[in-house]
């Protein structure tokens, strides 16, 4: 008996983005049926959902769904509303790791002031060379060693910066790795730059707080490419104002867009970016999700399935 063609429903936080993704899937897989989610409409009978920050009513409105595919690596915006037992798949990189490694490296260069004096001199017409930085004085801790965090650590380490990483489970890598509560303190204590690439879970929410930052070497620098929920903003602001943190490069926030009156905007040593450190590359996402659906249609396992007990 032939297997029926996949039937997708696309649901994102914005109708224009939903329509764009739906058309992308129609173009890439013309034999598949692709619908756009509209709250309050009758069920389409879709068997696979492709989502990004969807309205939770999706899962009540579409009772025939067999699996959900998230248009990003972080699943915190959907994991809480998906029915128990439904397979949830996340993107594994899809072109984001290189972008986020580049972003983190830019943060490291800002932290060490590699080009800052030359930018100032260029505006003044001044010609003066400075001694090269001593990378040994700028050890870097990378929190989270999945596909993205590992890439960040590898890129930074390849340029001679001492790098150490921390994850929930101990990993093997070409740099020192830590795990567990004490391992987290040891990893951060050995570092002057802190890069957060963790998934947001109940265990990691609020992890970057006053206590953790106190272990970072004085004059440290914070780079956040993960989620705003990892940071206790008041504690980060306090560390910046006291000078314990010399600066920060922040890409994700609890409320987005970041409110105009948020303290981060008024701190000269903080650079805010609008959640752009790792933007999904559409062609790679289409290929990755499509290939997984084909495997599921054939009764075969597909990579990227989220462990609901872990949240990633």
Please, could you describe this protein's structure?
- By secondary structure, the chain is of the alpha/beta class.
- The chain folds into two domains: 7-94 and 280-297, NAD(P)-binding Rossmann-like Domain (Rossmann fold, 3-Layer(aba) Sandwich), CATH 3.40.50; 96-272, Rossmann fold (3-Layer(aba) Sandwich), CATH 3.40.50.
- The chain has ten helices and twelve strands.
- The strands form two sheets. A seven-stranded parallel beta sheet has the order 8-7-6-9-10-11-12.
- Helix 1 crosses helix 10 and helix 4 packs across helix 6.
- The longest helix is centred in the middle third of the chain and has 17 residues, at 96-112.
- The two termini are 36 Å apart.
Low-pLDDT runs of 5+ residues are none
State the domain count.
2
Rg to the nearest angstrom? 22 Å
Shape: elongated
Strand content: 15-25%
Q: Count up the helices.
A: 10
Largest sheet descriptor: 7 strands, parallel
Succession of helices and strands: EHEEHEHEHHEHEEHEHEHEEH
Question: What share of residues is helical?
Answer: 25-40%
Biggest sheet strand line-up: 8-7-6-9-10-11-12
What structural class do helix, strand and pairing data support? alpha/beta
**Level-1 CATH class name of the largest domain:** Alpha Beta
What CATH architecture of the largest domain would you give?
A: 3-Layer(aba) Sandwich
Q: Can you tell me the CATH topology of the largest domain?
A: Rossmann fold
